[in-house]
Amino acid sequence: MKKQALICGYNISYYEAGNGKYALVFLHGNSLCADIFLKQLNDAALKSRYRLIAPDFLGHGESDKAGQNKKDYHLHNQAKIINALIAHLQLTHVILLGHSLGGNIAIEVLRSNTQIEALVLICSFPASNPFNKRIFKNTPAIQYFFQSTLSSEDIHKMNDLLLSKANTNSKSKLFTASIKKSDAFCRKTLAQIISEGNYMDQQEFMKTIDIPVIGIFGERDQFYDLAYLQRHCSSLFTNLFVVATAGHMPFYETPLKFSQLLLNEVGQLVAQDKINTLHSKNE
Question: What is the biggest distance separating any 2 CA atoms in the chain, rounded to whole angstroms?
Fold first, then answer.
C-alpha cells in the first residue's frame, strides 16, 4: 500500500519496503507511476539488503497535480520534491535509479544533494542542450510522450513502445491506467522546456561529478538508438549493460535478470566500498 507525505505543499505518494543502510530510490518515467517497480519492491533479495523507495512524481499516480502551478512540472522542480522526500524519510546513503525521464530528473537531484552515492540510469540518457534527437530511433509514436491530448489509439501506441516488439501482445493495463491518470500538462511542460532549451546540459554536468554511474538498457528498446549510444556516449557511464530480449522496461519485462544485475553491480560497489559521497571532479 502506498504512503503519502506532504512535500513542498503537495501530497506525494510513495512505496516503501525493505531494510538496509543503503536506500534504492526508484524514479519512474514520463506519464507512468511507481507501480511499474512493484516487482522490485516485492523482490525478497532486494528487500533484505536495501531500503526501497518508489515515489509518484507530482502529477502522476496518486500524487497531487500541480493545479495552476504548472512551473512545478519542470525537471528541476520535480527534483526539488524528490530531494525534500529524501530528507523527509531521513535517507542518508542513497542510490538513485531513474527510468527514462526519471533518469533525467535523477540527474537534476544530483545537483543539490550530497547524499547521492551512485546513479543507475535505466533506459535513460543525460540530455544535451541543444537537444540531440539522434539518440532516439525514428519512431513516430515517441511524440505522444510529449503531447498533452491523447486519444485511445495514441495510448495504445505508447503502450506498444514501452515493451519490446516481441512482448507488445502482452499489453499492461497498468501502463494504460498510469498514462490516463497522469496530468497532461506534465507532457506539455516537458515539450515546452525542450523546444525552448530551458534546461541544464546534463551531459556537461555529468562530466563534473565523481560517483559511479551504471547504465542499463534493453536490447530491444524502441526509444533509444542503442548502437549510437554505445559508439558515441558510453564514456558517460562507469559501466553499461544491455539486457537481452528486453525493451524500454527491462525491470518489468525481465525482472529476475534485472534484480540480479542490481544485486551484483550495486552489491559489488557497496562490498568494495567504491561508493563515495557525491562531489565535483573539479574540487
Answer: 51
